[in-house]
Amino acid sequence: MQAKVKAACTSCHNTSRITEQHMTRKKWSDELDKMEGLGAAITDSDRNAFLNYLTKNFGPEKGATRDAGKPPAKKSGSAAN
Fold first, then answer.
1. DSSP letter for each residue of 8-66
2. In this predicted model, what pLDDT tens digit does every residue of 23-60 receive, in sequence order?
3. Band of the pLDDT at 70, cuts 50, 70, 90?
4. CA triple 52-56-59, angle to 5 deg
């Protein structure tokens, strides 16, 4: 399924547009609807598999896990703010 998702999505943008998102199944479904409206080719028979793949690999839990390992962002400006 990874190859099909990559083929459908990267004709217009790079993979980071997918991998940096961490959405619920509902939000991924809305995003697929939007992308289909813009010309992405996702067959009805593949839609559920797309959603399963995207939710499993780029769902909200994946974002929390990845972000938890990042060091805190540095604050800019002075301490007097």
1. HHTTTS-THHHHT----HHHHHHHHHHHHHTT----HHHHHHHHHHHHHHHSHHHHHHH
2. 999 999 999 999 999 999 999 999 999 999 999 999 99
3. low
4. 110
- Report residue 15 as tokens: 């993979």
Distance, CA of 62 to CA of 66 (rounded, Å):
6
Q: Are 10 and 56 spatial neighbours (Cβ–Cβ below 8 Å)?
A: no
The owner of tokens 């909200």 is 60
The domains of the chain, with CATH numbers, are 2-67 (1.10.760)
